[in-house]
Amino acid sequence: MAKVCSLKGSFCATGGFNESGRIDGPTWADGPEPVMKLRHLEYFVAAAEELNFTHAADRLHVSQPPFSKQIQDLEGELGVDLFQRERKGVALTAAGKAFLIDAREILRACDQAMKKAQRISRGAGALAEGFTRNRRRLRRDGRRNARTRVAGRTHRSGHLSP
């Protein structure tokens, strides 16, 4: 049975599990198991924004040959060309433009998840309980009307104040 799993350092990986819950190996019929990493997405986004592998590699403080190899590995894993190589730089293909939107969202979500975990470990993201107070008001016809008011405001830290 194939399940989604996370291998150390991997962003995406799918493998089969045996009866003891251990990974059996790839379940991909067409080739090797994917091992996309966040680094691949970071490199791709930089290259897509710069439209030049040399400039993107400089921006990320890595040398250009390994940078280009990572982009090629990503394209090979996806089975699509993300860039159209030109004499001076590169251009995004239609698949590359679509992948760029998702890659940015994934990187943003990972960044938010790390920040959230750090806030919670510092105690700043703890949930606080509030209370409500019922106030009765007279309606124009003389009958009482229940109204609920939240007593307090929520601050960024999640704590309530009066």
Helix content: 25-40%
Helix/strand-derived category reads alpha+beta
In CATH, the topology of the largest domain is named Arc Repressor Mutant, subunit A
Named at the architecture level, the CATH assignment of the largest domain is Orthogonal Bundle
Overall CATH class of the largest domain: Mainly Alpha
**CATH homologous superfamily of the largest domain?**
Winged helix-like DNA-binding domain superfamily/Winged helix DNA-binding domain
Distance between the termini: 54 Å
Domains, number: 3
The rough form would be described as elongated
How many individual helices? Answer: 4
Note down, in words, how this protein is organized.
This protein has 162 residues and is an alpha+beta fold. It has 3 domains: 1-35, no CATH class; 38-126, Arc Repressor Mutant, subunit A; 132-161, no CATH class. Helices cover 40% and strands 22% of the residues. A 3-stranded antiparallel beta sheet has the order 1-2-3, with no helix packed on it. A hairpin with a 5-residue loop joins strand 2 (13-17) and strand 3 (23-25). Helix 1 (38-50) crosses helix 2 (53-59), helix 1 packs across helix 3 and helix 1 crosses helix 4 (94-122).
